[in-house]
Amino acid sequence: MTQVQDTETGSGNEILVDLADGLGILTLNRPRQINALTRPMVTELTRQLEAWREDPRVGIVVLRGAGDRGFCAGGDILAFHTSITTGKQHEFLSFLAEEFQLDGIIATYPKPVVAFMDGLCMGGGVGLAGHASVRIVTPRSAIGMPETHIGYSPDVGGTHLLGLAPGRLGEHLALTASTMGAGDAIHAGFADFCIAEDGFDEVLAALPDLVGVPANDVAVALEILHGTAAPAARLVADAAWIDDAYAGADVPDILARLDASTFAAAAPAAASIRANSPLATQTALQAVRAAREDAHLPSALARELRVADYLMKHPDLPEGIRAQIIDKDRSPRWSPADHAGVDSAEIAAAIASS
Questions:
Q1: pLDDT tens digits, residue range 79-99?
Q2: For helices 89-107 and 297-312, angle between their N-to-C axes, nearest 10 degrees
Q3: Which of 19, 191, 204, 321 could form a disulfide with 185 if both were Cys (CB 3.0 to 4.6 A apart)?
Q4: Measured between alpha carbons, how far is 50 from 42 in angstroms, rounded to an integer?
Q5: How crowded is the C-beta side of 4, counted as CA atoms within 13 Å?
Q6: CA angle 207, 27, 99 (to 5 degrees)
Q7: CA 351 to chain CA centroid, nearest Å
Q8: Burial status of residue 240 (CB atoms within 10 A of its CB: 0-12, 13-18, 19 or more)
Q9: pLDDT, tens digit, for every residue of 185-244?
């Protein structure tokens, strides 16, 4: 394939652009950072997708990540921390708005978008791949929205995907910040089918013959040709206790139900929630439930931007990034320290439409 490089966007080599045989291939190219997204990358992805929208040379768009560690580890967390600790929250909020717009473009793109979610796919990576029309995982995929672990709430349309997950699985994943394997990701609606770890080249070779075919049919054809059995979806067996526990009115009620559960997996879930930010878990719970209620991605993205603005003004977010990413002492000092100190009415006001 012939590589097409745009030298005017400022993204350098962070996005590689290939165009041939009816395919437009966009490669996230920060392998040392597991392709964590920067603003120039988001700008270039948006620009390229808009350029290809009516381009007859492109019939299918492919999203992939460079390196062998994963598709995308999420956003640039260190840049996030710098913004919120130097009084530049407005700048990062502007970046999030641009990123969320990109996620919406992918979700409504008029041509099939095939996302290869091999390896790690977290946060912002889910925003790119999770809204694509064809979402492919491998047995080594690890997918999740771990935001409550750093004092934040799922964004990039993650609350929309979590809200659409079966039963109360969305609440469980958001509050515990759990990571899913390929089988669970398919079960939860974050992915469509699984291929072998070394199967991407075969999928890529098959795509030119599917140019002009509707996205759903592309997915069916690729699964028939190259699909393989995904690792077992363990969360299927956990549905009973998850649906019961996470039907609780709020996080304290959910924790009480988990504590009372006789299922062995309930206790680790409760421990995970207690380790995460009380403010973030209560915010995430309300956000996922609101997203389930309206089942509308643009509304979820707008709500997530309001939530981001709200959480940036609280100390848990910089403290969570410090403890988990910068100092790595794994001992965040949450404020408030427990759920009793969280103002749920204040969260509801932040989530509500302005």
A1: 899 999 999 999 999 999 999
A2: 170
A3: 191
A4: 12
A5: 13
A6: 110
A7: 19
A8: exposed
A9: 999 999 999 999 999 999 999 999 999 999 999 999 999 999 999 999 999 999 999 999
